[in-house]
Design a protein that fits this description.
By secondary structure, this protein is mostly beta strands. It has a domain at about 20-95: Thrombin, subunit H (Beta Barrel), CATH 2.40.10. It has strands at about 20, 25-30, 35-45, 50-55, 65-70, 75-85, 90-95. A six-stranded antiparallel β-barrel has the order 2-3-4-7-6-5. A hairpin with a 5-residue loop joins strand 5 (about 65-70) and strand 6.
Length: about 140
């Protein structure tokens, strides 16, 4: 999991983004009125929504219900951006309709946090451990 700020040339984000895969259920209604429901995964989450990978071709402005697979919690979201991927999937940016900063059940760093902040844990790079201390799955 990365907590480093991800930036683009766009305006400053409202909250830090965290790379995190969480299984979610996504349900809604297509333009033709048919209901759909699909299991999807987040790629990035933040206190205001996230980015999910999904097969359903959603549309910007569409309303969907996202259900956290582990907690069962549901939140109404608005689709804000859709990007088609070559493998038949879509990357979909979602925004919570109402403030839900605890929906993902992760602690977000403060808005002014950077890897250079004094509070940030500093990585010294890879450390050598004796092989007897390493645990392996067998």
């Amino acid at each position: 999991m990365s907590t480093a700020p991800l930036t683009t040339g766009k305006a400053q984000r409202r909250s830090q983004r965290i790379l995190l895969a969480i299984r979610v259920g996504v349900a809604g209604e297509r333009a033709d009125g048919q209901k759909f429901s699909e299991t999807a995964f987040t790629q990035v989450v933040n206190a205001h929504g996230g980015l999910i990978s999904i097969k359903e071709p959603l549309q910007a402005g569409q309303t969907v219900i996202v259900q956290h697979a582990k907690t069962g919690e549901k939140v109404t979201c608005r689709v804000v951006e859709v990007t088609s991927r070559p493998e038949g999937m879509y990357e979909v940016g979602i925004a919570f309709s109402e403030a839900s900063p605890h929906f993902w059940h992760v602690a977000f760093p403060p808005e002014d946090w950077t890897p250079r902040s004094p509070e940030a844990k500093r990585s010294e790079g890879p450390r050598a451990y004796p092989s007897s201390k390493l645990k392996t799955k067998g």
